[in-house]
């Protein structure tokens, strides 16, 4: 009954506040002094609101966007074949089954097909199979499929890009619209060319972003204080997480070893990945001409690694089962053997169901900052999300671009709020403060070229973050020096492709 009452309270709160920081959204101005005075219209009159103003925003507080196409003028009569990963749940739903996101995706696809007069055919493969099919299609000139949705880490290479169309040249694509991720566009739009994109239909991007879960009861028992207040005031830092978890290990199975059967203050299901992003540290920047240069702040990175080694390696209260990621810490968190869990917002169906069904309350806050002076919280988008492309040799690029753009628009209108507001904030999270922090997490997602093209550049992010922290030895300067030439050559290869 307590949970039902709390959920009802959260629902009422969400209806009242809408979404204060939804993707690309805006909240209505309470007052706009002086607006309309030149035309003599009344402004700021209590109880009065023009129909135009009333209909300007949707129920989530976002300014309404008009459809990018007039569907009354379109009837393509074509089938569009999409390649996608077997794990992908962004694009395809076979039928309605009562599950909210599944049904919303099914309805979106059906609406797009009816509005534009197309059929959507989805073929699922592993990411390796997709890449092989793209190579074959690109080299033979076949037309077996048009759209590709694939594993970001492996697919965002210049080797793959050569088979894709430049999205900036396709009529019907509106990449500057709010339903596309502009922070991702900024990393992928190079010299006027862009071959990869993500938008509101790509919920996997949110799923793979790292954040911090905490057991509310254990936080209270340990006298840690109000983590939401600390976070919203900008004080949630690596130093604080270390302070809260040091000396917390309890040898529950009395075997003298730190293992998965013991109690710890914190652990991570993604090992030591993503911490440079959380610390506002970047590997690459564009110069005035748009070319890429290595730009790692060695001093800041070294200071961050000192703190992270202390937190993970010198802190007996930290548990990491595998430096490259593991589901075991999620088990431990659910079983109340862990106070804090650094985890993907949605790791997988099994583990998220376990968290959602925990008997004890839990909360969600961002990854901690480098220090309080850092302006924003940032979350690493672990590179298993889907990125989208259109085959260069596809027939009727304008039609395909229009359909993909329209699917993203419908997703912004319907899928994104269903997923973020109804499912994550209302069903998954348990209080409105977690919802506020979730907005901070989404707002802080970062796409550094050094990460986005990590596979092609040569494991730069993994080497500088995961491997160094795992070693317990702060070798930031020497590791960077040893690999700088190789990584610079990888960047040069990327620029040769985009500028050559």
General description of the model:
The chain has two domains: 71-206 and 383-431, Periplasmic binding protein-like II (D-Maltodextrin-Binding Protein, domain 2, 3-Layer(aba) Sandwich); 209-382 and 435-499, 3-Layer(aba) Sandwich (D-Maltodextrin-Binding Protein, domain 2), CATH 3.40.190.10. With 500 residues, the protein is of the alpha/beta class. The protein has a five-stranded mixed beta sheet. Strands 2-1-3-12 form a four-stranded mixed beta sheet. The chain has 21 helices and 13 strands. The longest helix has 32 residues, at 397-428.
In short:
42% of the residues lie in helices and 12% in strands.
Q: In the CATH hierarchy, what is the architecture of the largest domain at level 2?
A: 3-Layer(aba) Sandwich
- Please write the CATH class name of the largest domain: Alpha Beta
CATH homologous superfamily designation of the largest domain: Periplasmic binding protein-like II
Question: Which residues form runs of ≥5 with pLDDT under 50?
Answer: 1-49
- C-alpha termini separation: 65 Å
Count of discrete structural domains = 2
Major sheet details = 5 strands, mixed
- Total number of beta strands: 13
Structural class: alpha/beta
Work out the helicity level. Answer: 40-55%
At CATH level 3, the topology of the largest domain is D-Maltodextrin-Binding Protein, domain 2
Shape category: globular
Average pLDDT, rounded to a whole number, is 89
Strand order, main sheet: write it out. 8-5-9-4-10
What's the number of helices? 21
**Radius of gyration, taken over Cα atoms and rounded to an integer in Å:** 24 Å
Q: β content, as a range?
A: 5-15%
């Amino acid at each position: 009954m307590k949970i039902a009452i709390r959920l009802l309270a959260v629902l009422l709160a969400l209806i009242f506040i809408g979404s204060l920081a939804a993707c690309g959204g805006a909240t209505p101005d309470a007052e706009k002094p002086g607006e309309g005075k030149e035309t003599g219209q009344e402004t700021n009159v209590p109880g009065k609101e023009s129909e135009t103003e009333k209909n300007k925003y949707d129920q989530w507080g976002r300014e309404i966007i008009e459809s990018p196409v007039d569907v009354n003028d379109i009837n393509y009569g074509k089938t569009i074949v999409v390649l996608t990963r077997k794990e992908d749940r962004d694009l395809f739903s076979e039928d309605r089954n009562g599950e909210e996101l599944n049904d919303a995706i099914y309805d979106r696809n059906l609406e797009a097909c009816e509005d534009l007069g197309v059929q959507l055919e989805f073929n699922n493969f592993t990411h390796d199979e997709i890449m092989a099919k793209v190579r074959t299609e690109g080299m033979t000139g076949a037309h077996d499929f048009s759209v590709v949705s694939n594993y970001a880490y492996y697919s965002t290479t210049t080797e793959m890009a050569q088979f894709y169309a430049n999205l900036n040249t396709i009529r019907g694509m509106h990449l500057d619209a709010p339903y596309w991720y502009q922070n991702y566009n900024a990393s992928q739009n190079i010299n006027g060319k862009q071959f990869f994109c993500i938008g509101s239909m790509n919920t996997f991007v949110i799923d793979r972003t790292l954040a911090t879960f905490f057991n509310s009861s254990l936080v209270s028992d340990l006298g840690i204080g109000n983590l939401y207040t600390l976070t919203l005031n900008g004080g949630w830092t690596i130093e604080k997480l270390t302070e809260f978890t040091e000396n917390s290990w309890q040898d529950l199975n009395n075997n003298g070893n730190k293992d998965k059967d013991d109690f710890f203050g914190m652990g991570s299901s993604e090992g030591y990945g993503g911490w440079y992003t959380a610390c506002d540290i970047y590997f690459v920047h564009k110069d005035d001409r748009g070319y890429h240069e290595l730009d790692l702040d060695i001093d800041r990175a070294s200071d961050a690694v000192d703190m992270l080694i202390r937190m993970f390696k010198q802190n007996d209260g930290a548990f990491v089962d595998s430096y490259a990621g593991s589901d075991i810490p999620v088990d431990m968190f659910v079983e109340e053997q862990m106070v804090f869990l650094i985890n993907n917002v949605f790791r997988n169906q099994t583990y998220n169901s376990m968290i959602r069904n925990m008997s004890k309350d839990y909360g969600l806050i961002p990854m901690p900052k480098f220090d309080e002076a850092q302006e924003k919280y940032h979350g690493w988008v672990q590179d298993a999300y889907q990125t989208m492309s259109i085959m260069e040799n596809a027939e009727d690029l304008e039609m395909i671009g229009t359909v993909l753009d329209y699917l993203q628009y419908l997703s912004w209108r319907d899928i994104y709020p269903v997923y973020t507001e109804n499912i994550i904030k209302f069903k998954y999270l348990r209080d409105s403060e977690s919802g506020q922090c979730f907005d901070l997490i989404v707002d802080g997602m970062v796409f550094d070229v050094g990460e986005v093209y990590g596979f092609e550049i040569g494991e730069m992010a993994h080497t500088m973050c995961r491997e160094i922290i795992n070693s317990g030895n702060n070798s930031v300067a020497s590791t960077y020096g040893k690999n700088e030439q190789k990584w610079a050559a990888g960047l040069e290869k990327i620029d040769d492709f985009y500028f050559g």
